[in-house]
């Protein structure tokens, strides 16, 4: 589903009205017919479309992040997926005020990068990761990863952040990332490693255990890469459940 299919950012247009528009043939901005709604709503929709076209042409995801309901942020994915940054962090614990970030992996434009504490994991590198993205994509990152990065590195996150945990719940995919991966058929190279093991691996690395850091990096990188697969899967499912079902009503 693309941003151009959406009318829900408009004040006065909720899910019911939007789906009625789709069912009556207004499946995107070009197909909008003012006669399908009242004159006041029609004027608001046309004004939104004019403004939104300019922001879309300018490749400005922030405008849409600010106008779409947070529950509909997944709709930005199709338009901005090419520059989306899928990221995941590992830490020594769950408290961003006390614990530290050990590795940050991010996957963008087919390339995966891992930053390691004590090497290249710096505030500048993390900020560059954020600034280069049109859309950040994580799993539970709004509550966990982003606060850690903001606290540990003073990162200013001013790009939209799609936390896949929430759209996953919408389509019935519950549990942590590893459980969701299993549910959609994603296989891992090391399915035996968990978040707790990531803490242990970092401690072993600090103690000089050979291979501990390599294993940790591999685990972290796989988290980031698999987020793209998950994003593709869940947004496709939502497209079918939200848009295609409403659109099919016009056919029937």
Descriptive notes:
This protein folds into two domains: 3-58; 82-235, Ribonuclease H-like superfamily/Ribonuclease H (Nucleotidyltransferase, domain 5). The protein has helices at residues 15-23, 39-57, 61-67, 77-80, 123-131, 141-153, 165-170, 177-184, 195-206, 212-251; strands spanning 84-91, 101-108, 111-116, 135-138, 161-163. It is built from ten helices and five strands. By secondary structure, the chain is α/β, with parallel strands linked by helices. Helix 1 (15-23) crosses helix 10, helix 8 crosses helix 10 (212-251) and helix 9 (195-206) packs antiparallel against helix 10 (212-251). It has a five-stranded mixed β-sheet with strand order 3-2-1-4-5, sandwiched between helices. InterPro entries: RNaseH-like_sf (IPR012337), RNaseH_sf (IPR036397), YprB_RNase_H-like_dom (IPR038720). Pfam families: RNase_H_2 (PF13482). Residues 85-234 form the YprB ribonuclease H-like domain. This is Exonuclease.
